[in-house]
Amino acid sequence: MALPTLTPEQRQEALKKAAAARTARKELRDAIARGDQTIPEVLSRAKSDAIVGKTKVADLLKSLPGYGPAKVNALLERTGIDASRRAAGLGERQREALLNALK
Questions:
Q1: InterPro entries given for it (predicted)?
Q2: What's the longest Cα–Cα distance across the chain?
Q3: b/e sequence 56-89, b meaning 16+ C-beta within 10 Å
């Protein structure tokens, strides 16, 4: 499928929107790292909050203190969640398995 041709104004608007989304995801990850938000709180908003929903589960977990790439990959593998899965795409069983594994 070919990409649509955008006018320079449309392109600038799309770039601003993408930058704002990246900034919001970074702020979310920082809040998790500081302990201001927990993974259960964040995952409960995944279906209603577009920023949370479009964030990869692996990125959310890597924000937790003490969780690096190896530990996150092992956790996702143990719970049967694909590393590229986004928060809104988690099924109820996957979400429960993940939350139980984090306890």
A1: IHF-like_H2TH, IHF_actinobact
A2: 50
A3: bbbbbbbbbeebeeeebeebbeebebeeebbbbb
What whole-number distance in Å separates Cα of residue 83 and Cα of residue 70? 12
The model's pTM: 0.85
Closest alpha carbon to 65 in 97, 39, 100: 39
pLDDT band at 2 (very low <50, low <70, confident <90, very high): confident
- C-alpha to C-alpha distances, 41 to 10, 18, 25, nearest whole angstrom: 35, 24, 15
HEC readout, the chain: CCCCCCCHHHHHHHHHHHHHHHHHHHHHHHHHHHCCCCHHHHHHCCCCCHHHHCCEHHHHHHCCCCCCHHHHHHHHHHHCCCCCCEHHHCCHHHHHHHHHHHC
Q: What is the arithmetic mean of pLDDT over 55-75? A: 95
Residue 69 one-letter amino acid: P
